[in-house]
Amino acid sequence: AQKITQTQPGMFVQEKEAVTLDCTYDTSDQSYGLFWYKQPSSGEMIFLIYQGSYDEQNATEGRYSLNFQKARKSANLVISASQLGDSAMYFCAMREVSYSGGSNYKLTFGKGTLLTVNP
Amino acid sequence: NAGVTQTPKFQVLKTGQSMTLQCAQDMNHEYMSWYRQDPGMGLRLIHYSVGAGITDQGEVPNGYNVSRSTTEDFPLRLLSAAPSQTSVYFCASSNGFLGQPQHFGDGTRLSIL
Fold it and tell me: Using CB atoms, which residue from B35, B42, B56 is nearest to A111?
């Protein structure tokens, strides 16, 4: 079973509108972190936002916010006031803390959502 | 600030050749990892290290070898290149705190003919 599922291979949004990119995850750990990364066409991986499993408030970073619904195991990224420069691939990733052995540092990525912002 | 530096940026190999992808970080991060990115697959973990002298396998380790003799360097070796290893390779590093993001290098685009 996939640990991170991004069900939208591609999304389109009009400039200045808001868009939500979906991410659901699967873990039995109580302590974990969720990350969103942006990958523009130039190829680099850019960290956008982080949400910890014990954080009570949804994370926000400028125009990015994370709609965290722990019971549903979802961590959707919301981009407000979309800009042309937001056109990119977006990846959701999870970092688990396991006390049963193994590394606590591994990131598991979803397959990504390609966002296109139309003028 | 250099961050995570990967070399080379591009490489073409023939099937059966071996090569080493270099990765260096200057942030004193204990954790380093290698991912490969293929179309429609996201990033998949190849190998990772939690400190000098300690490495472990990720999701897709076959055909790759790693070692970590220093905190700064984490090279990835292709033992006998195969066309299935054509991919974009990313090195990343982070410290041990759960909320700290991994810092990625710019990637190496590798083609195996």
Answer: B42
